[in-house]
Protein 1
Amino acid sequence: MKIIVVDDEQPARERLCRLIRELHGYEVAGEAANGREAIALYTALKPEIVLLDIRMPVMDGLETAQHLSTDETPPAVIFTTAYSDHALEAFNTHAVGYLLKPVRKENLAASLAAARRSTRAQLQAVNDEIGASKARTHLCVHIRGNLELIPVEEIYYFRAEDKYVVLHHRNGQSLIEDSLVKLEEEFSDRFMRIHRNALVAKAEVSGLEQSGAGSALKLKHCEQRLSVSRRHLPTVRHFLKHQSLMS
Amino acid sequence: MMVMASYQKASSNLLPDFCNNQVILLVMLIAELLAIVLTLHHGGNLKDAFAYLGRVSFFIQSITLIDAAILCYGKRWFRRMEPLPMGILIYLLLQLVTLSFTWLGYTLLHAGIPMLAGDGITVQRGSLGTALFRNGCISAIITAAVMRYFYLHHQNILRQRTENEARVQALQARIRPHFLFNSLNTIANLVHAQPDKAENAIIDLAELFRSTLADRTLISLAEELEVSRRYLGMERLRLGERLEVTWNIPVELEQAQLPALALQPLIENAIYHGIEPLPSGGNMTIFARKQGGSIEIGVSNPVSAGHRSRHSSGNQLAISNIRQRLNLAYGAMAKLSVEEGADHYTVTLSLPVNGLRI
């Protein structure tokens, strides 16, 4: 079975790799130092098991697990952590593996043997309990069966089209399955609703334009004008006014 | 959070529970002592004195029990109020009870029913006005004294509780579990790969804990720096090249005295909240300088924009702990200031030179 080991501390990775090598039937396919690297590595190697540290820079273990769980055949996730108060109870109740560092070899062997593919619901439940309602740092899109991460700060706007939401970002556009309502809730400090079908990054807004039919929003990095609905016009005006006062 | 919660609980206990038998017994005892004092002052022969005591006791105890009943049934409303308005309201209510009783006693006495009358305290002699004035004054003084007693008692309990909490907090701030377990994990790995390094790491950890558990209040900056170096040594093993440290400490300041473990927790914070969340780490600066009549010692670390929000809760514990200890050692003369720049976070301790040996 292929395993990838994810931890920001080199000695911690080294120790886990050594322990895994001493067990039979497992192979360390690769190591990653944070969540973003882990997703890239996962996409390339498709391991069956991911050992994930919880506290990491760039993207923490909980968010990483959440993204991994959106894969068609998600890997088994085993969290490793040095210390996390009462948070561990959540893992127990949702049948996701966890190990306390320093990891005992027998415990690692037992966790690996018991590792099952995690379901999205399990990981989501753990995340709800521990990560509280923290906004994600990246969004995960599926391109030809692969997971690809888009940093939230590179997103220009979301637009709902038919069943999907189209995400327009620095490197193009992608489809995601989250609903606009949910996205608006999660990223309320970063994005603003301008129309029933559109959420725009506040940092991208450059101005308002009157066109024949109504008002349209100009963006810093997009040629495209986005129409602002009459209902959301006051919010947008207020935002622009506030912004010009700030600068 | 824990501190806040128990503090609120304590302040709602400012008013003792007057539904409680012991408390009622205590105030009745105080009331009876007052009755005895008044009787002694009244003089007269023994037989008269006992009769007098009986009447005065009846009068005073009635007032006391009505007071207790008001405080017992009204505590739900009183406890919702701020302490000061609550105190004033209760004080006025109790005076009102005394004056009402005096008026009632006076009226009954003049209607030919002497039972309820406080009698010689005031009532028989003089007009209703004098009676109200004299009883009002006695009541005002005694109530104030009793309320003061309960207030001091409450303060005492509160102080004890705060001291206990501070002690627990100090322990938690000194030994951060995250650091302990991560260090042990690092050592567990080193034992195999580099036994010599592992041995040194264990010795460093031992020395670190020894100074953490030591019961010294003031140490020299040189000693504090030694502890900090041991600590940074441990973190370096774990974080590798992600951790860079710049020392900016003039040699002549090394003999300055400061409260033990005033600096090391700041360094630990800087790593936990500043260096660790940065994927490629960063450079933290540890500095000391003389500034007028004080010495400034501090730590500055880079922060990543995305992790700014995390910088609060855990950090506050260590900071408020150090602030408390500075306050104990120097009073208002020492200062802990936090400066949050766009990409840097700096904590500076400012300690008075006076009283410090340099």
Note: The first strand of chain B starts at residue 218 and ends at 220.
Protein 2
Amino acid sequence: MRQNEQVWWASATVLSLGAFSFFAGFGLRGLFDGVRGGRGGEAINGYPKLASAAPKGSGPNLSPQTLYWDVLKKLQLYYVEPLPAHDALALGSIEAMLNELDDPNTRLLSKAEVDAMQSASRGEFRGLGAVLTIMRQSTDKGEEVVMDSPSSPLPGAKRVPPTRTQRKPANDDKPAPAPRGVRTITVVSVLPGGPAEKAGLLAGDRITHIDGRWIAPTHVSYRLLTQLTESLGPQDLRPRDPNDTDPLDVPPPNPEREKARKDADEARLRWKNAAELPVAIQTLAGGQNGSHDLTIERGRPTKTLKVTVTLGSTKADVVSAKKVSDKVGHLRILAFNPDVPKQVAEALQDFQKSGVKSLVVDLRENAGGSIDAARAVAGMLLGNAKFAVLRERDAARKIVDRTVLTESGSVHFTPASLSVLVNHGTAGSAELLAAALRDQTHVKLVGANTFGDGTEQELLVLDNGAGFTITRAQLQTVKGVAFDRKGLKVDVPAEGDALQAAVNALSAPAAVRSATAESGAPSKKDLK
Amino acid sequence: MSQSRRSNWLPVCLAVAVLGSFTAGVMTPELVAQGGIAEIVSKLRPRSSGHELDPVQTYNFALRNIQDKFFGEVKNERRMTYTAIRGLLNTLDDPYTRFLDPEDYRALREENTGEFEGIGAQLEGIPTKEGYIRISKPLPKGPADKAGVKRGDLISKVDGQSVLGLTVDQAVKKIRGRAGTAVRLTVVRKGEGTKEIAIVRQPVEYEVVEYAMKEGNIGYVSLAQFNELADRKIERAVRELEGKGMKGLVLDLRGNPGGLLDAAIDIASQFIPPDRGVVIIVEAGGERDLRKTNPRKYLAGKWPLVVLVNRTSASASEILSGAIKDNKAGTVIGTTTFGKGLVQTVVPLEDGSACMITTAKYLTPSGKDINRSREQRGGVEPDEPVEITEQEFLKNQDPQLKRAIEDLRKEIARREGGARNASTNAR
């Protein structure tokens, strides 16, 4: 079991977590450095008073690891207060590294989150009963779109004239980036019968506040808070040179500036009282119970709603199979975890025995998960075929496209007619499966356009139970179409009774070209 | 807090001081990072005993995995390590403990060479409404003065680039530079139109202590920074003012970002009676060291003292004003000070980077922690809070100084009255 789990986690495409593409790097860079403590912040008192010493010749051969070790030792020796626990030091270090990669889904996960993910793979959904991801979301307010970088972190504070010398951020080797929106907790899919559904949440909803507190896009360290205070704090005017009697041009009252100042004050207060995103996501997805008020933004233009959710554990059948009529079966898959292929195989065999010929594959609110599990399901329906294209890095860190095949086992079910039901909560490997079924057999996608989670993450679990995800690949359909942040367009849009629409849209699948007939080397070690 | 507007006399040559750094001591690390490292770093998976993570191994594990797997762009190992170190330091929740990469560290050392290289001119703290930057005072015989820059000149361009939209601090950054290099200013002068002036930047010395005798024989001494000369220059200024019949003294620490601890203690010794506590220094491990006044330096006592502080008075300024307040050696007037009661030491690292580590903290003699933190605002609270509004600033008014002088007058009158009464009674 342990072994199994390890394999699963190692190969795992993390259940949930979606989507984000990689713009040239920029992110929380600077968060951890170069914070100007204002004038006082820079004042270094000469204590202890020792002779100046230039650093010894810079050692190009000195390994960076040694440097890290060295800093840690020096902190232990010299820092005035007791150091935080080793766990905190370790996690703080890697969190900074992960954040700098500028991918919202390459991130640190608390132990509670890792646990919740693992229980979700067993069909027990904790907390909100929704799969959440972190996406950059811009606001409707155009210019007030904010970066989640401390260099301009304050929504509504954009027009405050910069008021102090900005030293170049310490590790700034790129030009200042364009604003790209704030990291926001985003609902990928909503579990039927769970707290999120009961509260009326929908896939794509952005959770902006929890219990009345704005969710800040990052940890609000005291360093960051200081910086915010410094850049927007009250002014302290020093009197002019008394010998200089020339009159100053008294600027006329400037309502715009006054407004900017007011906005800045509000923004500062908001940061000060903010809920930190990692904490908020742990509250919602970390398995705690309790009631919370959420503020939700939905759609564009944005509608703002307030809902109350009562967190709790929701048991759900990840795979469910029902007959819609004598010949038509409805196969619903809510997630792709390692047990899913077995359950789907059983369901398909039951269908076969009971005379079901046609199949609606229902991937609504399926946020994805293991790509291997989705491949196995595809193998049952398509036989040996191409499943997807993974764009990833090879050993030399060159970007390569790797074609991934279906995994064909002993169970095969070739429906007389087929349709695929999707909605905005269909994401990740569920999108891959939907695209593979459509592209390989020309059957119809019915329902609503999908979420657009086109990246694959690997989860690495640390010894203390916390973990981190790394985005390994960009997912593409068999035809080489990347769908991240775009989603798949449905052939038959359907509202209301979508299942009936899917039944109506059933069509005979075209013959699938077997992938083994091609020279392309099937990849053995897929998705390690 | 650190606003360009706060300081109307932000001189170009002073910009560095305004940024506020003064490192006297750069510590030579005793510690050499060798031995056993190779062993530690060769383990890929972070092991831990009792499920506690080892930071070095965890960092290394994350680094390897990111390098092997991450789809996006990855910076080189050194940059990633710098980031990890920043993350490590960030966990301390101490904004002053920070990592300096080689570039930052070089910049810091240049800032701290003690000489300011620039054109030697003070600038008005707020751009004019047209967006120009006004020169309030070229330092006599400074590079700007020699090149013909005059008070009231409006800078419109620096090296051909418009200053419109820039803050004064941003413009200062463009104007400052290494000694020997030239900067080309385009200035607008009333009645003469636009002209270009090329100025060769030079090290500029500026006076850390300025003093004057105000009406009613009230002495005024301002200190811009606690450097090695500060103590002697203040003593000289006070003695000279005493020689002219000074009856009360205003010590202006507004905008003073701090400096040497020893200078603060020496200056405190001039104003606080002998053998009183000035500051308590707490080092790693919690050991407390009470530093006392030097009895041979005591000057005050014969006249009342007022200290002016504001939000930009930091560090050594706060030690001095806090000590004067705690010992009731004078009245503190202005706004609550910055709140920095921590000492940093710059620890150079092997590859040319450095780490600024908070190695000690200060408490006022009464044991009060003045450091600003998540929990408290910190700072030295004035005995009499007085603000300067923007309107007052624009009208060139200084209500803080005004209040100081009023207070001193009353106190002088009270003392003189008391003395008369005392002598009457004696009779």
Note: The domain at 26-35+66-163+179-235+254-311 of chain A is CATH 2.30.42.10 (Pdz3 Domain).
